[in-house]
Design brief:
- This protein is mainly alpha-helical.
- Among the domains are: about 160 residues, no CATH class; about 100 residues, no CATH class.
- The protein is flat.
- The two termini are about 55 Å apart.
């Protein structure tokens, strides 16, 4: 990435000037020897990282990120002078190009060191730093080049360490930088940070102006939601409502719109609007949390009627929903959950193990052993159908679970019993020798059971 054009920045002080200012300002006096040692240790560690020639693989990125975190932790423990700390953390951000170039960070571990650890430490020092204009100028300087997208976090946390006056100074400089760009994508590099700062100081007109500039005159759905959120934070619920009315119920962000709408209706003491919105949220996702929210807006006296009505609605549905199944179980309607799953048995796909396993555990706790067995059969058959040996450990565990469930099933109804099912399984998957070896191995039994 080529460096971006920015307006001239105020000159930043040298490390020596910072240390002298700390003494004169009376901020966080420290023992010079320990502070000097901590600074040398930090600079040496960072220099070593920057000189590294061995590429860090994805598997090694976790250890690499821990190493980076420790460097920052030692800095925090050894340096308490605010301006010195700010400058040293800034040097860490300046090293992002070297740090990322030498690693595979597809896991995001290294990026989180910047956006969480380093950002938090910067905020820690900058909040105590008396020279707010210097801190603001330093952040602006750092953002001139943000090749890896980890420096913008310093803007997003600006209200934690800068007063509104310094934030507005930053906004003015960002507008100048925006005007200096000719390409809309380069303009957005600055505009997105103006939007962030506008949210933090609850300046709704400024946020609208920035969003219109970013959208080349238009404000899209996400922008309407952003402005509505800003209006709520600024205590202007009526304006928030007018912006939310511009977001259609059929949009991708209708869920987010309803969350904000519910908050607005409560602030406006509009009980009818709150109830209607709560219903939409609940219908979109039947869950313990949304059900409690619905009752809060309708009144607890409606609970039994709601439970009965929603149970009937779920049982009539033509498509299987694991979410609705868990909801019925949470309500204590395990018999209804059992009937619901039996009616949608053909739709149960063992590939959805993350949904099925918790349900199977709950169904087993309720004593529904036949249905539990059928769920585990679906899980097992999914493993065997894929024929990937590294997943056989799970398949063996499922089969052994079926072995323990079989004696508890009092009636198999129209389904084959466990012995017949097992025999069919052996015949159909006879060539999967590694699976059967693992299943029959006493050693494997201890490992997989």
């Amino acid at each position: 990435m080529t460096p971006r054009r920015t307006p001239p920045l105020p000159l930043l002080r040298s490390d020596a000037a910072h240390a002298e200012a700390d003494k004169e300002g009376g901020t966080h006096a420290t023992r010079p020897s320990s502070t000097a040692a901590a600074i040398r240790q930090f600079k040496a560690a960072l220099s070593k990282i920057k000189r590294r020639t061995k590429f860090i693989t994805w598997r090694e990125s976790g250890a690499y990120s821990n190493e980076l975190s420790r460097i920052l932790l030692h800095l925090k423990e050894g340096v308490t002078a605010p301006r010195t700390g700010v400058e040293l953390v800034a040097s860490f951000f300046r090293a992002d190009d070297k740090i990322f170039a030498m690693c595979d960070d597809s896991s995001g571990n290294v990026g989180q060191v910047f956006t969480f650890d380093a950002c938090d430490l910067f905020v820690h020092y900058a909040a105590e730093c008396d020279d707010k204009e210097w801190s603001a100028a330093l952040v602006l300087e750092l953002y001139q080049v943000d090749s890896y997208g980890v420096r913008d976090c310093l803007f997003d946390a600006a209200s934690k360490y800068l007063p509104e006056s310094a934030i507005r100074w930053l906004i003015d400089r960002l507008w100048v930088a925006t005007d200096g760009e000719t390409n809309i994508y380069d303009k957005r590099h600055w505009l997105f940070r103006i939007e962030s700062l506008a949210r933090q100081i609850h300046d709704v007109p400024l946020l609208e102006r920035a969003l219109r500039a970013s959208g080349e005159g238009e404000i899209h759905i996400r922008g309407c939601l952003d402005i509505a959120r800003a209006c709520i934070d600024a205590g202007d619920a009526p304006s928030a409502l007018s912006w939310l009315d511009q977001v259609p119920d059929t949009s991708y962000d209708s869920g987010k719109r309803d969350e904000l709408l519910l908050e607005v209706h409560k602030k406006l003491e509009n009980r009818r609007g709150a109830a209607e919105t709560a219903w939409r949220i609940f219908r979109r996702w039947r869950h313990e949390q949304t059900f409690k929210m619905l009752l809060e807006n309708l009144g607890p006296n409606n609970r039994k009627q709601l439970v009965d009505e929603e149970t009937r609605t779920i049982l009539k549905s033509v498509k299987l929903s694991y979410t609705d199944t868990r909801f019925l179980i949470w309500l204590g309607r395990t018999d209804d959950a059992e009937a619901y799953l039996f009616s949608h048995l053909s739709e149960i796909n063992g590939n959805h193990y993350a949904d099925i396993l918790p349900i199977a555990d709950l169904i087993e706790e309720a004593g529904k052993y036949l249905l539990t067995s059928l769920l585990y059969r679906a899980l097992l058959e999914s493993i065997l159908a894929r024929a990937i040996s590294k997943y056989y450990t799970h398949g063996v565990r499922y089969l052994r679970k079926l072995d323990t469930l079989a004696p508890k099933v009092e009636e198999w109804r129209e389904f084959v019993d466990h012995e017949e099912y097992f025999a069919s399984l052996e015949k159909t998957h006879a060539r999967k020798s590694s699976f059967w070896e693992r299943y029959r191995s006493p050693r494997g039994r201890r490992r997989d059971g």
